[in-house]
Write a structure and sequence with these properties.
alpha/beta, TIM Barrel, Rossmann fold, Immunoglobulin-like, 3 domains, 4-stranded antiparallel beta sheet, 23 helices, 30 strands, about 25% helix, globular, transmembrane, alpha-L-arabinofuranosidase activity, signal, BXL
């Protein structure tokens, strides 16, 4: 019990109901740990604790923006500037605790960042597959549940005192434009629709069910047109991406728009790069007019780490540090990852480069998010939605099962000659397991990982299925500068079956490191070919890679009977692979990126154009615009069963066509069909134009399994910058052998059938469009009134 005297200098009514302007005696029960902190001069572990005087920023009945504004108004100028970095200082006199903004949760909580630590009661967290593999499932439910699980584990760590922040700087929703990009495997792939749907599902899971009381805060990064780290001396810190309005409108920006407008993400991160001469973190048109004005961001804008310093030091966009801080804050950047704004902020204010009002606007955005996280609502353990989460909710059986399910759902079967897979356990006496990725725990995790709950390598996974497993790494690591070919060949000759685990790792692709080749590294190819030639029967090649590789040699080699892509499959990856190889899981993954041949290396990474230019030999990028040979196409993936798909019904009704009759169509500049401006069509008409498209899918056996149906759009011609084809949507359906199902796709012409003009305007061509799920099965959609 603590007897103390309080006074309201603002002459406002006190929390215990006393009269205004009076001294009141209050008796409060204070936890011993809290009393010790306060008596020792420390900051309470949470603000607005029981018994404190009434202040407006503690009143949960007040709208959060008003609460934040009240708190900001109480800060001194020096205290305000101290809040502008990713490590925000405490303000003891107001009971404001210190806060660490930077935490990561790309595919599980991460050791990167400053907000989480794993040295207490919780020492491991669930490590899900790297994002690109998870995307290959084309299953939005899996994406949502992974986001939800990461959010639960973050809140659990916060509740038990192992987290000093709940702002998770994930997901990465950049387009995987170039197969060499070292961070491409962090993304959901190359298709804007897929990446957008991933962003919405993951963010909703991560942030929780309530828009006013966040489980965690999600941050969609890195806006915009960022997909180069280090290519032949051109580095992300100073790269100026030349991007057309057309490519921004229909490729680079849609995932961020969906993240904010549909997913309701509470943060967007601006990238290191400049776009058309303006650093992303200093671009008012992007950060304020687009993020907040057009897309309705309710939250904050974070910079990539040290990006504000680089605006001055690397890009030389402004002459002084003070000008740089002022320019970025006024552009709409709120949270500088780093301390550049804290170091130079006061000088920028004294020199008149910015005003206190500019800082206040930023801080209201920041404190609003902290309040939505419940940081000024008392003890976080009393939060009715998330206060019950604790150590038992981390690495829970449900989360472990989800990690396994995500991995096996994303694995893609690329080749299966003569039905070599699945293997039958009772017929496999011995197996040679060969390759540097067979027993390397690091090959499972990709980057931005935390300490996993468990680690099941492919070697360990196979040991659970075969008694006689003989292992030979063949190479020290994936670089494979020299290969133990003789040892590998000897092991291969001595066993019934051979499974090779090859691929890449952080040695070839990671943040700050773009790939220098699309071929398997070092001596891997020659090792594979030697082993395949020596084996008793065709071998199985399992690729653990982040991005695509040119394995044309394996695709056409009859001694290589099967090829499986397993990405970076997370903590349960070895078990997931074994279940697929032995038929306990019917593979259903489909590639979320195009696999290009090595000759694609001649295309400069710095050329940001998406569309092909036949006049110069530029081949274009991604399945939507690329004009050239492929190793495997976007959406490719085999199964142990045979599935058929048929577009059964679709089209606009007569009354829907009449909705466009009153609009003015514009003649196309390329001489093609006239078109309608989506903005002129308007939200109400766009809603009325939606129509269903029904796909009949059947599993012809012999195994039960899941099948992902991808629906595409094509135009009568690909002139005027139109894509060759464009994904409309996808659905994943589990079917027993012999079972049929009808899947209904809701098609929005304004969203799915529109295209970008050269000026970035989205339009609907007033002519025929063709929907298809198989290239020989199309349905024509006409917009002729």
């Amino acid at each position: 019990l603590c007897l103390h005297v309080v006074h309201s200098p603002e002459r406002k009514k006190l929390a215990m109901g006393g009269a205004t302007g009076m001294v009141v005696l209050m008796v409060t029960i204070i936890p011993a740990a809290l009393l010790h902190m306060v008596s020792a001069g420390g900051t309470p572990p949470f603000s607005c604790w029981p018994g404190a005087p009434y202040v407006r920023f503690c009143d949960q009945r007040v709208p959060v923006e008003q609460r934040a504004a009240d708190l900001v108004a109480r800060l001194t100028l020096a205290e305000k500037v101290s809040q502008l970095g990713d490590v925000a200082a405490a303000v003891p006199r107001l009971g404001v605790p210190a806060y660490k903004w930077w935490s990561e949760g790309l595919h599980g909580l991460s050791m990167w960042g400053k907000g989480m630590h794993f040295t207490g009661a919780v020492k491991q967290v669930t490590s899900f597959p790297q994002v690109l593999l998870t995307t290959a499932s084309f299953d939005e439910k899996i994406w949502y549940f992974i986001g939800q699980a990461i959010g639960v584990e973050a809140r659990a760590l916060y509740n038990i005192g192992q987290a000093e922040g709940l702002t998770i700087w994930s997901p990465n929703v950049n387009i995987y434009r170039d197969p060499r990009w070292g961070r491409g495997h962090e993304t959901p792939g190359e298709d804007p629709i897929t990446v957008s749907k991933y962003a919405v599902a993951f963010v909703r899971g991560l942030q929780g069910p309530s828009p006013t009381t966040l489980q965690t805060s999600a941050c969609c990064k890195h806006a915009t047109a960022y997909d180069l780290d280090d290519w032949r001396g051109t580095v992300r810190y100073s790269f100026n991406a030349r991007v057309s309005p057309q490519d921004l409108a229909d490729t680079f920006n849609p995932p961020f728009r969906s993240c904010v407008s549909e997913g309701q993400a509470s943060c967007v991160m601006c990238a290191y790069t400049s776009v058309n001469g303006v650093p992303a973190c200093a671009d008012y048109n992007l950060l304020t007019k687009t993020f907040r004005g057009e897309w309705g961001l309710k939250g904050y804008v974070a910079s990539d780490c040290d990006a504000i310093a680089l605006v001055h030091d690397g890009q030389h966009f402004r002459p002084t540090p003070e000008d740089t801080v002022a320019t970025t804050l006024k552009a709409g950047m709120d949270m500088n990852c780093g301390n550049y704004t804290q170091v130079h902020g006061m000088a920028a204010l004294r020199q008149g480069k910015m005003t206190e009002r500019d800082v206040d606007k930023t801080l209201v955005n920041l404190f609003s998010v902290r309040m939505r996280l419940g940081h000024f609502n008392g003890d976080p353990r009393s939060n009715p939605l998330y206060g019950h989460f604790g150590a038992n909710d981390v690495c829970s059986p449900a989360h472990k099962n989800l990690a396994l399910h995500a991995a096996e759902s994303g694995i893609v079967l690329l080749k299966n000659d003569a039905g070599i897979l699945p293997l039958r356990r009772w017929t496999v006496g011995s197996v040679a397991v060969i390759g540097p990725n067979a027993n390397d725990p690091g090959a499972l995790l990709g980057n931005y990982f935390g300490p996993p709950c468990e680690t099941i390598t492919p070697l360990r996974g196979l040991n659970g299925y075969v008694k006689d497993v003989r292992f030979e790494p063949g190479c020290i690591d994936t670089a494979c500068w020299s290969a133990a070919t003789g040892k590998a060949v000897a092991v291969a000759r001595s066993t019934d079956h051979v499974i090779l685990f090859m691929g890449t790792s952080h040695v070839q692709e990671e943040e700050g490191r773009d790939r220098t080749s699309l071929l398997l590294p070092g001596q891997q190819q020659s090792l594979i070919e030697a082993v395949a030639s020596a084996a008793k029967r065709p071998v199985i090649l399992v690729l653990l890679t982040g991005g695509p590789v040119d394995v044309t040699f394996a695709k056409f080699n009859p001694k290589i009977g099967a090829i499986v892509w397993a990405g970076y499959p997370g903590q349960a990856g070895g078990l997931a692979i074994a279940k697929v190889l032995f038929g306990e899981h019917n593979p259903s993954g489909r590639l979320p990126v195009t696999w290009y041949p090595e000759e694609y290396m001649r295309v400069p990474m710095t050329d940001m154009r998406m569309r092909a230019d036949p006049a110069t030999g530029y081949p274009g990028r991604t399945y939507r615009f690329y004009r050239g040979p492929t190793v495997y196409k976007f959406g490719y993936g085999l199964s142990y069963s045979r599935f058929s798909r048929r577009l059964a019904a679709s089209g606009l009704a007569g009354h829907q066509k009449s909705l466009l009759a009153g609009l003015t169509s514009t003649a196309a500049a390329d001489g093609g069909a006239s078109h309608y401006d989506v903005e002129e069509v308007g939200a109400e008409r766009c809603e009325q134009l939606k129509f269903p498209a029904v796909v009949e899918v059947e599993n012809h056996g012999p195994m039960d399994g899941k099948h992902s149906v991808l629906m595409f759009l094509r135009w009568p011609n690909a002139t005027g910058g139109r894509p060759a084809s464009q994904l409309v949507g996808f659905q994943s359906q589990h079917l027993e052998a012999g079972e049929k199902a009808s899947l209904t796709f809701d098609v929005s012409p304004c969203e799915h059938l529109s295209r970008a003009r050269e000026d970035g305007k989205m339009v609907i061509d007033g002519a025929s469009h063709f929907l298809f799920v198989d290239e020989d099965d199309e349905a024509e959609i006409s917009f002729d009134a």
